[in-house]
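Re: the multi-chain job from yesterday

Posting the exact lines I submitted so nobody has to dig through the queue logs.
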Amino acid sequence: MTEAIRTPKSSVSTSSVWQLVKYALLAMLLMFMLLVCLHAVTLRLEIGSESNAAVDFARNSISLNLGSEPPQLDSTKSTDMVSGQVLGHVMEGLIRYGPNNEILPGIAESWEVSELSATFYLRKNAVWSNGSPVTADDFVFAWQTALDPETASQYAFILYPLKNGEAINTDGADVEDLGAKAIDDFTLKVELEQPTPYFIKLLAFFTYLPINREFYDSRDGTYGTSVEDLIFNGPFTVSKWQHGSSLRLEKNVDYWNSEDIKLDAIDFAYIISDPNAIINLFATKKIVMAGLQAENIERALANRWPVKEHVDGSVFYLGFNHREDRPTSNRNLRKAIQLVCDPEELVYKVLKTPGNRPGESIFPVWLRGVNGYFRDEYPAPKHKPDPDLAREYLVRALTELELSSPPQLIFLTGDSEFSTKHAEYYQSLFKENLGIEVRIDQQIFQQRLAKMTSGDYDIVAAGWGPDYDDVLTFGDLFTSWNANNRGLFKNDELDRNVQIAQQSSDPKTRMEAMNRVQHILYEEAAIIFEYERGSNYVADDRVQGVTRRVVGTDPDYTRAYIVDKAKE
Amino acid sequence: MPRYVLMRLIQGVITVWFIATATFFVMHNIPGDPLADEKAVSDEIRENLERKYGLDKNVWVQYGTYMLNMIRGDFGLSFKHENRPVNKVIAERFPVSAILGILAIVIAGMGGVLWGALTALYRNRWPDVVIIILVILGISVPSFVFATVGQLGIVVANRVVGFEILPVAGWGTIWHMLVPALVLGLGTMAFLTRLMRTSMLEIVNADYIRTARSKGVPVAQIFAKHQFRNAILPVVTVLGPSIAAITTGGFVVENVFAIPGLGRTFVEAVQQSDYTLIMGTTVFYGAFLVLMVIVVDIVYAFIDPRVKLK
Amino acid sequence: MNLSFTPATVETDIEQTSRPSLSYWQDAWIRLVANKRAITSLFVIICLLLFAFVAPHTIWRVKHDIQNLDRASEPPWVNRKALVLSDNDTWNDVVVPDAVGEHRAPTSLEVVGEAATSRVRLMWDAVPNSHGYRVYRNIVEPREGAPLGLSIGVVNESTLVSFEDRLDIRQKPYWYSVVALHEDGSEFDTAKTLRVVPQRSIYVSEALALPGVDSAQPGETVALVWHPLGTDYLGRDMLARLMKGAQVSLTIGIVAPLLFMVLGIVIGSVSGYFGGIVDAGLMRFTDFVIALPFLLFMILFKLMFVPPEGEANFLSSVQDFLGIEGGILAMVVALVLLSWPGIARLVRGEVLKIREQGYVEASRLLGAPNRWLIGRHMIPNTMGVVLVSFTFAVPATIFTEAFLSFIGMGVVPPTPSWGSMCNDGIRTMETYPHELLFPALFISITVLAFNLLGDGLRDALDARMRSSE
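And the result, structure tokens for all chains:
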């Protein structure tokens, strides 16, 4: 009865095993045939990347990865960095940025600027890849299209400095009223709505790129969605675009300045975002550049790869919800939170990448002021974390809010791994120092935006990147009329100062006003500055002449070239 | 028989319609704004966008329009890949996932059945123990760990050998698929191994096998004709949904190995609230799955004469 | 013939063929107990449950969400001796007069004070004609012509010759290099390199807060708190997190499969047994559920369980009542509602097969009711495949949760789960393997235990094995 479970009496019969081996052999044969078939089908489908080396000396080309796929390459509709990078390689606007971020002539050979107008003289040797010349009308057409409410461009606002730009976009004015006119094929006359000292810098932005009217109309609404639906006027052309997989750029021999372009091809051979996979591609010499997370830095160092850093120009902060029914609308509560936050600890112990810089102001250090850097001329207010003082503020806040214990706060954040770590850090910080319970609300991107807009949060992890090279790209973020001010911060003095900066063309007046903005944001604890983002990356040193930028095409390979380091 | 198939197909269409309806309403009830982007837009532009995608209309009107278009085989334009038809996106991504999936399922199916049969034959002896330990390893490690470790393995192997044996990531040749397919199929293979083993052992003692044995039928023939064939049945049942699940892609594997497949597309669509792309992929996936289930049921009838199609 | 017959004596002690009457379940239990592997596994599972639900309240009361950023990602075998530093440990930049002379690298590079994990202070001599310095840190000795390592700081004045490194310093050798800069920011050709091994440090106020430390003077060493399994990326105790993670993973990994197994068995057996229209209807419903996109429904349930503030609904009040945190209930509900079809199809397939067998036919002819046939023949005979599926459903469910954490839709932080801990560990796999190893080990042990137990149960419940003995 209690005998252990017996194995069935049938012992292993050699013949059964032989039968199984026969099956196995048959399976292997089928498998082999299947592999051959699948290989043939895959080749036939022509999806995917050719297995190129990172640096291909024979073809004079380099290979790279893209973090995501450009949704489309219609410059009037693009919004993301990746599209911006690709467009920067295949298109050229009136001006372009040089290797040291200086403004260089692009399609415009020269220009004259006055306070309220500008005239651009276009070069006559610039052509589209279908052979037709790049004319002034191509710019007018692109700008009109972007402003046309039917296009519903999200970046139309960047064209608002043009006369009637805003009216066309939001008030139903006729696109023909736009303050941009083609005097003749090669002369473009622009009128501005109000003095805009940084107007020329705006022209490098992708929404200002030209579009060939005839070609656009001939595509019947599909412009920008595939290689057949695109033409180019920049240093490169898109020669192959396999959606979701790869994008290949080839040198544009018709580009007016093609002798400056050294590379014959740039192969965005992989569309991949997994950080470990990107490093693995770099390690096997498949791509020439790879971003590093804090976790991968040691691997890069141990392999003696050249680790570089790049400040991408964005600032990150904790945004408060200033709606009246929220506890965070109380200044003392915000002050208490401000006093326990330590950006240095965040950068050194949590982010752990040296490229990042502890945040002190909404204006990052690279912005220009009157003569030098804005932040050198107008240092940001600073303090040391002081939990004791913070608790005093908290007591005052609780009295004002008529609460007996600290309120629970909702911390809205993204769904990435980093977001989790970052939110957990603050959760513990607020709990230990202030006794504030934090509920972390992780949401995918669209839902996070929806919640930010509807105000269903107390604190949100947010960031802002520059659209153009002027203090105002950050300065007007917290004005009462800015739709991106999703926490609804409202301060009349701040609004006034931004208006001063917008309307004045005197650098000193503008910078003084911006300095007030910087102080108001700090004093009111409207937001909590966290860090200015800098990234570390490894780059193949056989490729030189790559430019990294804060504003504009980044990284820029248009003038890159290959050096032979084969001697090693 | 043809009548049965026809009936099943009609039922299948109804099932797909249910799937589409359920997904449509769930999607519209999840807060999240497909039109939102980093930069806030003015109300006027929003209205234009809503008009373009028909979001300004009553949800029932939207539903009706969508269903009518779906019947015509038109899944609409993607929100994120602006102006690109969802049909086109699926047509590009599905073959990739399907090729990878076929390979994975074949590896899993053949491996599972063979290993399972082997472990059953050698029950409680060392081959059984070794394989079972491997199987447990196979199922106790999450796929994202396998994918990452597998990729690191390729890097190390390439470095040790000094030339490229297998590419680290990407798509385009059979060499790109081997490791991803293995990672994708590993879990299913482990599952099938165990299922096959159990199922074989149950049959060992079945009456018809004893009868056959007592009649003096050669052991190999009993194994081939009765045991093996009958044991495969539950495996086939499980295979149907697995085929659909695997061929429509593993997000993790596609993400790590930079494979332009449907799994990645779907997860990205969900993360970006790309309504039309979510609907398109779900309905496509549903239809494919229902079809696979029908195919499996028919295959079942061929293998097992006891099951009659009514 | 007078023959007399004597009655034959009844021999009562010939072969006794009966055995004590045992119910099916009693018999199964006896067989299970006899199976050493199964019993060991059962014991392991009980241990795991104790580990998850009892240990955190008795033997290891460390909280799972207490951070210590100075001790992030520590492996268990780390040296716990720490040097006490003054609370007022500040340092001023060192400024020297401009040097004159030729282009060269700094001739000296030294550490000021102790090299400690909270800061390493470097000082060097001024370089003539320079416009500043760049400081590099490396974990391998820089070679001639090879990169110097990670740039950790830039000094913009040639007379400012010091730098304080505070970036995530650990107890291991570092090579610091200082190189002078030209006016345009480019570097001189040669650098000065120094090897530094920082010592773990702690500030006086932190040291006094340690258990068992009454006084601490700067310069003394104290022993830090012990973390038997090391710490995670925010310096939280791994053991405490693994216990908390066990609660989450085992709850989801056992409760959800149990529930959807039951649902699947009921639907599958009813469908297979009755056949016809019932079968067709249920199977189409099954197809429908299989095809529903899990991810979308997961988001939906998550939102239903976590309503906007102030608007409690039925589901969220159930959740509050049960005291379950971290969105676990939403996950269980989603899993149960969407995962049963696989098992239902499997059971149906088996039932279809069994239905046609002789003994079932016989039983039916003898007038056995449906209840009897399903309960006595169908379910016990499908137990084999069902148990195997269950043992697979446990890890599969644990991984589904891990996958959801992978895309940011899993448990709400700071609640950990084994899956999300694996997910965090995979990134640092090469640098700090313990962060991946321990959660992965726990998952493996759990899976192994459930598999072996499942095997044992299958054997024990298999009625045919009984008859074959």
